[in-house]
Amino acid sequence: MDLLPAPTEPSEALKSPVVEIETVDMVADAVAAPDPEVSSELDTDSDDSDAWETLSDADDAIQLLRDDQLRDGLVPGACTLDEATAYRQRLHAIGKAAFVEETIARETVTAKKLCTAFGIAPPAFLDGAPDEAFHPLLAIAISREFSRRPKLPQYNTIDDAVKLLRESKNVIVLTGAGISTSLGIPDFRSKDTGLYSRLEHLGLSDPQEVFDIHIFREDPSIFFSIAKEILPTEKKYSPTHGFIRLLQDKGKLLTNYTQNIDNIEANAGVLPEKMVQCHGSFATATCMKCKFKVSGDAIFSDIKDGTIPECTACQKSIAEDALKPQGLKRKRSANGQQKSRKDSDDSSDDEDYDIPTPGVMKPDITFFGEDLPDEFGRRLVHHDRELADLVIVIGTSLKVAPVAEVPGILPRNVPQIYISRTPVSHTGFDIDLLGDCDVVVSELCRRAGWDLQHHMIPADEKVEVTPVEGYESRHMFRVIGA
């Protein structure tokens, strides 16, 4: 079977600023702009246009279906899981237009039923409507499925994962906050324990605003009040960081793309040339005014105290200017002209003058609303994309773009393994290894015959691996006796 190529212009998707992905709403958002390739093959001008416009405004109007619901026959009139799998494979094999011709045009299946094959339940307001009324929803469902990377059927078991580890030569490792939680650093989204769940006291409408660049510029104290929570105090690293270092030592690590800003990879000895810090790190900081750059250690004490670090270069410049005879500079008006004394009701008002203040030292992490480093897209698209022979995603829910788009940008014939506590539904991996990241990687190394040395891995650790019911390629890892 011919393998599908990756998108032809992947670099464009990587130029966008960092944003949060709402995967559950992605279908509703797509209603406003259905894929013309599919829409042209379907009658999307149904008599239910008013109801359809209502759908585009209602996030809860679309119900996404899980494969286990199809498998267990819980949705009346839906495809079986075997039927759904066959339809998905056929779509990826022949393309969208040919698929629509083969199914809807030849009336081999209804649009209403076909929607369920791609994980979308027909909305209640279309009950009793003619089948043509489901064409707009089907157009969205087909485009959504076609954009997903299809699972490679030959990779399913633990032995498959171990074999891939042994035989691979150029491994891309994409990591998130889950690889640092065993060190006491909170992740962001875990219920009750994640950082976002602990920020309600800040009075923000959304806890993610603490990492919003616009809010940082307005009030940097919000960020610095919690920065110490995510800054490691010791030069330590987790077994998962050690696993990445082990891949490097074996000459297998192509690149570690990390979303983490804690810079712990460096503690483990991962070389700078083997790592892309997608969201920056605390390793350095830059003045928001004069762009003076310092080592992260220079502002470490301020961050640990929860205070706003000020630029020493600005402080020096202000001190030098104070010794000069010109005195305070007058404020400039909006058009850049100096204000005149006679323009002011009170010529002695100090507000007519600029009071010099040093700039804020912002850690060189990428906030929401800022572009990722150029190195991210350049290296991925122009170097790693053609060399990678294995992708391992560890400890991330892949909810922040554009990093979340990396698995779909890489060639679809490259096997992908996912390691985390819980699976993701919006990205298809070949093998899901679920459990504590440290436990999973240590067991993989045991089975591969690799010696992963770390004081946090008990010498007598026994790990039980059990398949997840209903999923051939999903496995759960648990320490026996834990």
Report the helical percentage: 25-40%
Give the overall pLDDT as a whole number.
80
Strand count, sense and barrel status of the largest sheet are: 8 strands, mixed
- The radius of gyration over CA amounts to 27 Å
Span of the ends, CA to CA = 45 Å
**Strand segment tally:** 15
Shape annotation? globular
Structural class: alpha/beta
Question: Low-confidence stretches at least 5 residues in length (pLDDT < 50)?
Answer: 1-9, 21-34, 46-60, 332-348
Quaternary state reads: single chain
Number of helices: 19
The strand order across the widest sheet is 6-5-4-10-12-13-15-14
Strand content: 5-15%
List the helices and strands and how they pair.
Layout: H1 10-13, E1 19-20, H2 26-30, H3 36-39, H4 49-56, E2 63-64, H5 67-71, H6 81-94, H7 96-105, H8 111-117, E3 120-121, H9 135-147, H10 158-167, E4 171-175, H11 213-218, H12 221-224, H13 239-249, E5 253-258, H14 264-268, E6 275-277, E7 280-287, E8 293-295, H15 300-305, H16 312-322, E9 361-365, H17 374-387, E10 390-394, E11 400-401, H18 406-409, E12 416-420, E13 431-434, H19 437-448, E14 463-467, E15 474-479
Parallel strand pairs: 4-5, 4-10, 5-6, 10-12, 12-13, 13-15
Antiparallel strand pairs: 1-11, 2-3, 7-8, 7-9, 14-15
Helix pairs in contact: 6-7, 8-9, 10-19
